[in-house]
Design a protein that fits this description.
This protein is an alpha+beta fold and 237 residues long. Helices cover 29% and strands 31% of the residues. The longest helix is centred in the N-terminal third of the chain and has 18 residues. The N and C termini lie close together (7 Å).
Length: 237
């Protein structure tokens, strides 16, 4: 059993530079993508769309970490191809691939993936950002990443000068209820991990879960809040 839901919202900005895409093949194969264009570089909407579209177009149904790295590097080349001397567009990306009991995911930047098993958070990606580096160096605790002074300093992105180092892994899903959440920083900044789990415990399906978490976000964001995007996949093994 595989169920999905997603949304993307402009927030308080003039344009939405987030993108989310998915491809389904049969009942058990899924490619799910969230990408966040870096607006400070211009062309963020085009960058995130190009990256997400490329990954989905080239995906052939596998759940393989090495192949996924190649797909994301193709997304990087798609972003580079759109750049001009006046517009060095860039994008983060996070991708989930499912094929039966196999799962693979990868990311570049600070768009995140969370993995819950039977309602408990068992894994989350680590941002490629200056604030995450500060955690690694022991300068701040993980709970201080949100709204840290260097939060917007992204250390890896599609469209950067060199081919980005893609962080990826694959696993075999053990029996149980697996829930995946992919989201941009405009979402996870305002929804805490324990709240994700709390809302999951009382949600009937992925859309219900996203609605509950989004309600928390909307109650907290300032009027000029960032674009926010999230996509969820529920898998019973």
């Amino acid at each position: 059993m595989l169920h999905t839901a997603s949304y993307t919202d402009i927030g308080g900005r003039d344009a939405n530079e987030d993108s989310t895409r998915q491809v389904r093949l049969g009942d058990s194969q899924l490619c799910l993508v969230v990408a966040d264009g870096l607006g400070g570089h211009g062309g963020g909407a085009q960058a995130s769309a190009a990256a997400a579209d490329t990954v989905c177009k080239e995906w052939s149904g596998e759940a393989d970490a090495e192949i996924l790295k190649t797909l994301i590097q193709s997304g990087h080349q798609s972003v580079v191809a759109l750049q001009t001397p006046l517009c060095s567009m860039k994008s983060t990306i996070v991708v989930l691939e499912l094929n039966g009991r196999k799962a693979a995911w990868a990311h570049v930047g600070d768009s995140r993936l969370y993995h819950f098993l039977n309602g408990k958070l068992i894994f989350q990606t680590r941002d490629h950002s200056a604030s995450q580096l500060a955690v690694t160096m022991g300068e701040i605790t993980p709970d201080k990443i949100r709204f840290h002074e260097d939060r917007n300093r992204i250390l890896r992105a599609l469209g950067q000068d060199s081919v980005p180092n893609v962080e990826a892994q694959e696993i075999t899903l053990e029996p149980g209820k697996h829930v995946f959440l992919l989201c941009s920083d405009g979402f996870w900044e305002y929804v805490l991990e324990n709240e994700m789990a709390d809302d999951l415990a009382v949600s009937s399906d992925p859309l219900d879960w996203l609605v509950r978490m989004r309600s928390r976000l909307l109650a907290r964001v300032p009027s000029d809040n960032d674009n926010n995007t999230a996509a969820a996949a529920w898998v019973d093994i």
